[in-house]
Specification:
4 helices, mainly alpha
């Protein structure tokens, strides 16, 4: 339960923080959720240590997402406060 909640929380917050449109947010959500699942399986010893070729492409995409997060954080650190992200996800803050 906790593992799926953390995966969801990371994916939804990343999607809302970086995505400009609903299409962007859906793609970011799916990508971040998949990346967290892979990370989790490796961290908990559920992986054989080999990545599928598609996962290599995913790792490049996640690297780009992380760069975007760093740039956003450097521009305005308040954007990553839990309260700010939660309110944005609820539609209570202007984008």
């Amino acid at each position: 339960m906790l593992k799926s909640y953390l995966s969801y929380k990371i994916a939804i917050r990343g999607a809302w923080s970086l995505g400009q449109t609903i299409v962007d947010r859906k793609e970011l959500f799916t990508t971040l959720r998949k990346a967290y699942q892979i990370r989790s399986s490796v961290a908990h010893g559920e992986s054989n240590g080999y990545l599928h070729p598609d996962d290599l492409l995913l790792s490049y995409r996640v690297e780009d997402i992380l760069r975007q997060c760093i740039r956003l954080w450097l521009h305005d650190t308040t954007q990553f406060k839990s309260e700010v992200i939660d309110l944005r996800c609820l539609g209570a803050l202007a984008e």
